[in-house]
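Can you give me the bound-state structure? Components:
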Amino acid sequence: MSLFAGAWPMLRKEFVHLRRDPGTVIFALLIPVIQLIIFGFALNMNVRQIPTVVYDQAPSQRSRELIARFRSTDTFALVAQVTSDAELEHEIRRGHAQAALKIPYDYADRVLAGRGATVQLLVDGSDSTVSSAALNVFNALILLENQRLARAGPPIVEARPAVLFNPATRSPNFFVPGLVAALVQIMVIILVALSVVRERERGTLEQLTVTPVQPLGVMLGKMIPYVTLGFLEICWVLLIMRVVFAVPIHGSLATLLLLAVPFLVASAGIGLLISTRANSQAEAFQMAFGTMLPSIFLSGYIFPINNMPAQFQLVSKIIPTTYFIEVTRGVILRGAGLADLWPNGAVLTAMALAAVGLAARQFHRRLS
Amino acid sequence: MPPVIETREISVRFGAFTAVDRVSLTVDRGEVFGLLGPNGSGKTTLIKSLCGLVKISGGEGRLLGLDVRAEAPAIRRRIGYMSQRFGLYEDLTARENLEFYSGVYGLTAERYTKRLASVVELTAITPYLDRRASQLSGGWKQRLALGCAIVHEPEVVFLDEPTAGIDPVARRALWDLVFQLSGQGVTFLVTTHYMDEAERCGRVGYLYNSTMVAMGAVEELKRLPAANPPGTARYEITCPNITEMLATVRALPFVREATIFGQSIHALVETAAAAALAAATGVAPRPIEPSLEDVFVTLTNRILADRSAL
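Here's the bound-state model for the whole set.
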């Protein structure tokens, strides 16, 4: 008797289920669109237009020049002029402004005398992204202002940074390729786990146990439809990414899709593992959600892995999404090829085999 | 020829709980064996252990001469199982369900066509073939489930409470099907709560508290000494106000058991007290044979009495 006995009828039946329940397919294709809209349009890591108040203690030409420089950046948006320290603090405390520029009364005099004038920027530290962006731009502005005032010809050292692969540092370029991975993983895990547990709830899994169907046959029949669906979903999200968000794909699409296969199988394997543990669909749903948070927050999708404590970096290494996010960003943004990314493919393949093997063993144990 | 189903002191334990306790039984080819017993007595577990769904903790079970534990894969192709939950896919049509199970049993396309024709003929499900299982009535669902369980022509079929919750007409139709198949040599092991169904079976076994308390042909069971304690006789008392009469009869010192049976009371009475019974009730009691239910009630009471005596 073949190890995969029953895979073919299971597979056919599973596609009939999908056809009868178009909700699942629509769900799988619609959720990414919603997520893309949220992550692509709403979320932006680039800090722009920080509401800023100005407290100019003694308006002068010098101070107006400085304020004009602030206004010309995209980072600060001047929302009000204040006339006292108390008012300044009040504006920040009530959240009206996140930064305040304070120019002391002797600013112009000291600049003219070359005696070291001071300018103060007060930043609301409750949002670390905003405050660090504000400080960076503030420091750069003052540096430039110093140079301008010194009129000492060309600077001795000039900074010329270049951002590779995403020159405009657009957020969609960063988010969307990662989103492909995070989204598809959770979708495949949930769909596979639920479809097995549904059969357990309805008693059909027990019925299958008295037939010659083998655990691997059941598993294969359950995985292929949802791996296929996940594959379609990847293509769909990439299409939206390319057309709507205008994120260029620098590398080879074939490489990306090839490496998607072990990633999808690994995700389906995790779904199967969950299904061997869960007795009800609600339980399976909870467990699937348990895998969602680490795969969003620890996979490098949003927060860089290098910034995590060592033990969390270890956790990130056992999450398939981590490797596939590297693949998507590598191919889409950096134009990386199979030669660069094969280690990720190897890890994903190993994970896929491990998850499926483990699930098969659990299945056997539960059935016998 | 060896018996089709044979168990020797088979036991199933879940931790400290013994669900089936040293049960031995044999069922021959073409027999319809009825398994009775209260809820939780171990009927379903016994069936599941024979189908390989539950691990056997002790003893030996053989199906078609094959060991249940060691030769499970070979057995699977030759048995059919219909659980209390049917095992149908609700969103698939009747035809798709049959097709799926025939695929699972590895039937070739030709054999499937042939089997579909004969299963459809047997179950008369033609008008509902393209209807989804979820839209079938209870009776048709059960027929379809039985059809799925026999699509691969099994030699032994296990039916776990096949008629629970369906109407009497559908029940009779299902039993007709069972007897038609048993006439063709298929062996059945059926659990049920209904005494009338049990009376149809060639032989029955009564499970109580995980042990097989009595087993044999229905007529044999009715003559069991344990069911007819020496010095007692069964009488039927027919009168208009039976509920009031039952209280009167139960209060009599020489009445061991009394219960309502339709329009009359069945009572187990000490033989010498027949005249006293007639005097107390004002009705002439009619001596009767015990029904199967009487047998099981008497057996159960005896077990309970023995236990409290210990």
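A couple of observations. Chain A has a mean pLDDT of 87. The first helix of chain A runs from residue 7 to 20.
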